[in-house]
Amino acid sequence: MPDLISVTEFISETNEDYKAPTTSSFTTRMSQCRSTASALEEVQAVAILFSSARLTLSSAP
Q1: Which residues contact 39 (CB under 8 A, 6 or more apart)?
Q2: What are the pLDDT digits (tens) for 10-36?
Q3: Number of other residues whose CB lies within 10 A of the CB of residue 2
Q4: What is the mean pLDDT of residues 30-49?
Q5: Could you tell me the pTM of the whole model?
Q6: What's the mean pLDDT in 30-47?
Q7: How many Å apart are CA 30 and CA 40, to the nearest integer?
Q8: Nearest-CA neighbor of 3 among 20, 24, 23, 28?
Q9: From residue 53, how far is each of 22, 23, 34, 45, 61 by CA, in Å?
């Protein structure tokens, strides 16, 4: 699994790609962007499940 990319790195890469698309390394870092997005989605899903379970337990008699 590729390393994750920070927001700062993503913005820097995007800016570099915008300014100089022929010399940009943005496309080579796309796997890191995808991995980061997937990891964030998984964390969000777990947080939603945890919140739902906690609400269910707290409303139990």
Answers
A1: 4
A2: 899 889 989 998 888 888 888 888 888
A3: 12
A4: 85
A5: 0.55
A6: 86
A7: 15
A8: 28
A9: 50, 49, 28, 12, 14
